Amino acid sequence: FQSTVVAMVKGLFGQYNEAFKSSTFVHDEFSKELAGKDNLLCWDCDGEHVGVGNGKTVSLIDFSDGTLRKGHSISTDGDVSHLHFSPTSAPLFLTSSLSSKKTQLWDSRHKKANWSVANDAPCICVRFAPDGETMAVVTANDELRVVDVKSGKVLRVKKFTIEINEMEWDSTGNFMFLCNGQGRIDMLNYDTLESCGVKLFAHPKSCRCVDMDAQRKTMVSGSYDASISVFDVDELICTSVIQHFESTIERVSMSHNGHLVTAVVQDHSETNSLIFETESGKVVHEIKQDGRDAFSCRSFAWHPSRLIVAYERKKGRGGASCVGVVGI
């Protein structure tokens, strides 16, 4: 019986790999070049638009027919430092600005923000709760805020005495996973913003960034130690560590099914960007840069329901940016 089960598992894994290798979609199809600073990328919940934050503009690139087409743009009050779409309503998205210290809610069908919340310090993370009704804001003065999405009212605030970084929600919205400067991911109760007593020791150095799959079953974190840690959220254990980098992991992005992950690294000389299998750490795809002056990808965003990743590419150091998609 045991040998039969092993054979079935191997067969299924082989089928997955075969489908993975043979499946192709749009490869390196670029939108109109975007001048300015690094682009921030995020898909809407339907997967029909890629939001691009660039300078004081959020551009919505249409992807409804499987190709990148120019959409419309919305002007914001300050430089866009973070961009996050609602998980339940495609037109709604959040932005934050380092310069204005504001967090704003937008409806892509309108040109004015629904509301603005002034923070005491620049924002380093904004995330909608799974139900889309509340959102969390982490600021550079180590403060965590919970805001009502409909009204913009600040519901809860907690000031931490240690460095805190990015956060994520669990699938119920009752708990939060908060990265901190001590290399941990602490689990907090939503009602009190206090620790539940669960402390995941993710890295030996400051835990900087975190992301989850669509079902919030798998979580990945990145750190100053140049590694990616992979967690089973139900069991609250680390299942693997990906050690391929030589510099700080600035951002991590995970596919909707939790099988794949990619990262933005601090060292810009790493010009080819890699996509890894979360379970094994194996490199399954490489987004190559063309030309000797190619620049590393500075932003990634996985499609909400398909194995398609949007990415930014620089054309030479300081050159114009492009946004592309690649299907795995």
Structural account:
It contains one helix and 27 strands. A hairpin with a 3-residue loop joins strand 14 (175-180) and strand 15. With 328 residues, it is mainly β. It has one helix at residues 2-22, and strands at residues 40-43, 49-54, 57-62, 73-75, 80-85, 92-97, 102-107, 115-118, 123-128, 134-139, 143-148, 154-159, 164-169, 175-180, 184-189, 195-201, 207-212, 218-223, 228-232, 237-242, 249-254, 260-265, 273-277, 283-287, 300-302, 308-314, 321-327. The strands form seven sheets. It has a four-stranded antiparallel beta sheet with strand order 1-2-3-4, with no helix packed on it.
Q: Topology, please?
A:
Elements: H1 2-22, E1 40-43, E2 49-54, E3 57-62, E4 73-75, E5 80-85, E6 92-97, E7 102-107, E8 115-118, E9 123-128, E10 134-139, E11 143-148, E12 154-159, E13 164-169, E14 175-180, E15 184-189, E16 195-201, E17 207-212, E18 218-223, E19 228-232, E20 237-242, E21 249-254, E22 260-265, E23 273-277, E24 283-287, E25 300-302, E26 308-314, E27 321-327
Antiparallel strand pairs: 1-2, 2-3, 3-4, 5-6, 6-7, 7-8, 9-10, 10-11, 11-12, 13-14, 14-15, 15-16, 17-18, 18-19, 19-20, 21-22, 22-23, 23-24, 25-26, 26-27
Overall outline: globular
Order of helices and strands: HEEEEEEEEEEEEEEEEEEEEEEEEEEE
> pLDDT average, as an integer?
85
Helix content: under 10%
Strand order of the largest sheet: 1-2-3-4
Largest sheet, in brief, is:
4 strands, antiparallel
Low-pLDDT sequence parts: 1-33
Radius of gyration: 19 Å
Distance N to C terminus: 35 Å
Q: How many strands in all?
A: 27
